[in-house]
Design goal:
Blueprint (H helix, E strand, L loop, with lengths): L2 H16 L4 E5 L5 H13 L3 E4 L2 H8 L16 E4 L4 H14 L4 E7 L2 E3 L1 H9 L3 H36 L7
Antiparallel strand pairs: 1-3, 1-4, 2-3, 4-5
Length: 172
């Protein structure tokens, strides 16, 4: 890679890194190339990105972005995995990959602009997905309205039940 290509790579990665505020740094030392290809395919399947590059280039690309906080972790073989929106889904996928391939290890992570430890990554991966959380929120917002509608309908329903009990052939 010549100097111009390196600068183009740094510039394009810097633009991508500016658009995200969550990423995972992974030590992939000892992972087979076939497995890395499969990992990339899985991450692309959820619209995420997985980048392996030299630490010096990664540090330059991370300058003036939120990833600059992870500068000290760019040592040894390092890959950067990130997703523009679904950090929980990516954490779940990476944790699952780590379980099946013990050489695939988290170095550090940046979640919503905050550096988190590997134990916090495990807690993040244990969270329900975004869709599940949104459906729970909708349920919680909908429940009071349903209860109000039920309470407002009760007097009419009760009146209807009482009138139904009155026989049709009752004397007037």
């Amino acid at each position: 890679m010549n100097k111009e290509e390196k600068q183009q790579t740094v510039d394009s990665l810097n633009a991508e890194f500016r658009a995200i505020n969550s990423a995972f740094l992974i030590n992939y030392e000892g992972v087979k190339v076939v497995d890395i290809t499969e990992i990339r395919r899985k991450i692309r399947g959820i619209d995420g990105s997985y980048v392996v590059l030299k630490n010096t280039l990664a540090k330059r690309a991370a300058k003036e972005t939120t990833l600059e906080q992870l500068d000290s972790f760019f040592q040894g073989p390092t890959a950067v995995a990130y997703h523009p929106k679904d950090v929980v889904g990516l954490a779940k996928l990476l944790t699952e990959i780590g379980k099946s391939n013990p050489k695939f290890v988290f170095k550090a992570a940046l979640v919503e602009g905050k550096v988190v430890s590997t134990s916090e990554i495990q807690a993040l991966a244990a969270m329900p997905s975004r869709e599940v959380m949104l459906s729970k929120l909708v349920f919680l917002l909908k429940a009071p309205l349903q209860q109000l509608a039920t309470v407002l309908k009760a007097p009419l329903r009760d009146l209807g039940l009482v009138l139904k009990q009155v026989p049709k052939d009752a004397p007037e």
